[in-house]
């Protein structure tokens, strides 16, 4: 049985995601705003304001005082939600269907990937096998995600958690957990010994 090879192009994305006028803001963001400097370089305040202005028109919802670093990639951004005072550092790669809470800090080059590929068949190349349904990533409030972390499809990171730099997160992270490694494992709990 042949598998239909999924071919994507700009026009099919525009139609499938019903982007409409958002397509204009995608063009401004990816064509200009993403290349402008980040703090502390000169012009970074204006550049950050332009990135924020574009993303507010691209995302499903965006809280107040969100910071978006240079080179951050969001696909079409149409299903991204991000809460107040959260930040994307430089060169972040965030899947289009990610939900991020309030007060979330991310280091440089964090990747959140909600898509994957089928690979079960051996008679045809993997690129021709299509993709399973996307599994969104959900990040709670008050989370710190260190530099160069990779968070895989369907992962939920509980509120008040810390993900150590360079970690590859393949499973859900409990609230208040500090995780690290490849694959990421719980190192300790931030609320150990806390009297309630």
Automatic annotation (TrEMBL):
<comment type="similarity">
    <text>Belongs to the transferase hexapeptide repeat family.</text>
</comment>
<keyword id="KW-0808">Transferase</keyword>
<keyword id="KW-1133">Transmembrane helix</keyword>
<dbReference type="InterPro" id="IPR001451">
    <property type="entry name" value="Hexapep"/>
</dbReference>
<keyword id="KW-0012">Acyltransferase</keyword>
<dbReference type="InterPro" id="IPR011004">
    <property type="entry name" value="Trimer_LpxA-like_sf"/>
</dbReference>
<keyword id="KW-0472">Membrane</keyword>
<dbReference type="InterPro" id="IPR051159">
    <property type="entry name" value="Hexapeptide_acetyltransf"/>
</dbReference>
<feature type="transmembrane region" description="Helical">
    <location>
        <begin position="19"/>
        <end position="36"/>
    </location>
</feature>
<protein>
    <submittedName>
        <fullName>Acyltransferase</fullName>
    </submittedName>
</protein>
<dbReference type="Pfam" id="PF00132">
    <property type="entry name" value="Hexapep"/>
</dbReference>
<keyword id="KW-0812">Transmembrane</keyword>
<dbReference type="GO" id="GO:0016746">
    <property type="term" value="F:acyltransferase activity"/>
</dbReference>
